[in-house]
Amino acid sequence: MTTRVAGVLSPGVLLASGEYQVSRVLGQGGFGITYQGVDTKLNRAVALKEFFPEGCWREGTTVVSAGRWDKSTYTDAKERFLLEGQTLGQFNHSGIVRVFYYFEENNTAYMVMEYLKGKTLSELLKSKGGTLPEFDALNYIQIIGQALDIVHQAQMLHLDIKPENIMLAEDGRAVLIDFGAARDFAGRNTTRFTTLLTPGYAPLEQYGQSLQCADHTDIYALGATLYHLVTGKVPVSAIERAAGVPLKTAQKMNSQVSDRTSWGIDRAMAMNINKRPQSIKEFLDLLSLDTSILNSTSHRKISFYQSTQNPWEIFDSLDSPESSDSSSNGDRWF
């Protein structure tokens, strides 16, 4: 008789006809569980990511869709998980976590990824007293920006860029990890299965169900990450900003931040999407960072919001330098 459980796979469980063995849990999020495992053929450590949406449970090792996940939505989301594995597996960039293999088993799907030893950028921040020197912060942003440009060229978004999702590996690489919120944004189906975002890093369009995300969504989060690195503070959330709470400039938070970097962050974190850089290259250019290795092919522009009026003009006053540090609440959106 099988037992219904909501937990994780036990250490020692074998997957893919014994090719991989589960060792321990590394983390769990809204869409899945990540384990440290072993490639039994090559005798090397790997990370095993299991598709396990929040609300589901198990019968033995078999995952059963439950809660708001019916058979149709569960199957659709699982297929997107597999497509994510297929797409990530094609990348060959030192700044993107490597995917070696993906497969279906236990009524769910798995990705086999490189196991990264090191610390997250968030952990480095804490060890350095909360802030990084501007030069170091810009170096990390350039590396991750170059990786993100590759992701965007593949018509994917990350949608959860933050210091916790940037791994500083022992081999010296800065690696963008946890693509759990990522999805292709050129596909037919733009349905959102759930809202996965991190306040402070997520722009306003991620809070809506009908507003479409694009490159500028990740650029906002990359700018917010730079803001955190040089100020030691998570930015005010987009929802609070829409309600009139001002976002102080990075230079106001830390007088050592240069004019150019502070201005570049302001542009990246503009509430009006039309005022943000529309590509990684444009953002890195604003920061005077090297963009010579980026793909020069222009991105296909995606219509963000079909309307006879521009819904973002309401935020123009909030995006202006004069009002961003004002003590007044300014124009309210709600």
From TrEMBL:
Q: Which domain of life is it from?
A: Bacteria
Give the matching PROSITE patterns: PROTEIN_KINASE_ATP, PROTEIN_KINASE_DOM, PROTEIN_KINASE_ST
Location of the Protein kinase domain: 20-294
Fetch the SUPFAM superfamilies from UniProt: Protein kinase-like (PK-like)
Q: Which UniProt keywords apply?
A: ATP-binding, Kinase, Nucleotide-binding, Transferase
Annotated ATP binding sites: K49
Q: Name one GO molecular function term.
A: ATP binding
Q: Which InterPro entries match?
A: Kinase-like_dom_sf, Prot_kinase_dom, Protein_kinase_ATP_BS, Ser/Thr_kinase_AS
Q: Which Pfam families match?
A: Pkinase
Protein name per UniProt? WD-40 repeat protein
UniProt organism field: Hyella patelloides LEGE 07179
